[in-house]
Amino acid sequence: MNRYLLRALNRAATTVQAMKKAGQRDGTLTTEQAKDVAALASRARRLCRTLTNAGVHFQADAPEPRGRLSRQDRKPVALASLMLQLLLPDRGTGHAAVKRSDLSEEKLRTLFEAALLGIYRFYLTPQGWQVHGAKDIHWAVDDVSDEAAVHEPALPRMRTDVTLVDPEGRLVIVDAKFTNMAVTGRHGDKPTLKSQYLYQIHSYVTMAQLNPDQLRGVSAGEKKVGGVMVFAALGTEERSEFPRHQEWAMNGHPMAFSALDLMGSARAIRDDALAAVGAGL
Description:
single chain, 281 residues, alpha+beta, 6-stranded mixed beta sheet, 5-methylcytosine-specific restriction endonuclease system specificity protein McrC
């Protein structure tokens, strides 16, 4: 297990240092943020030295532990796995080969959600936003008789991907989708937003509005809850009849659907992610 942790820490130190240089080069990091990133890279290097001095030998392909882990070992191994998997492949001619089977839609969606949460925590928290991860939302089911309670309805689970509260106290529910934002009819009709995602975010917003206190650890005001769907796009061109960012109000609830072009620059992705929830730098 220690070799796997050392492998992850080495990757962390290298990756964070590269992110610092890239951020300073393209202007996406402030001086203060660059200091924080440098401190994180330094801490990763210190932990590497600690393990090395304790007799742990570096192994570039150290496998993830598969046996039963103790409770105290589970979190560091999970964090190491996340660090080692947060490597999106480039479609260029690099030496690293990634099997298609390693890039399941579920894994890509999980990475996309984690990246969004990281952007919002890093940039919005200093602006006075509350930034939380996934939160459960419960259906507002009326009380039923004891006889009917025996056969409770099998309602789908509602769970946010990112949960925000803006500086004015508005709760904003964010759901991430690693899929296209548009759907076109069978006869080449004008593209529209996907109805199933409209229904989903509308349900989340409506149920959260009825009982905002159900979101543990989230302190929101009385403003109407907002809903945002953020989609991953890969080099999709902007079309005048179907812009990548669309927003409107539905019964007083601010709603937005926004697509992030993952083939764009780090600055463009950051700016679009912030604009999706109505924030900026």
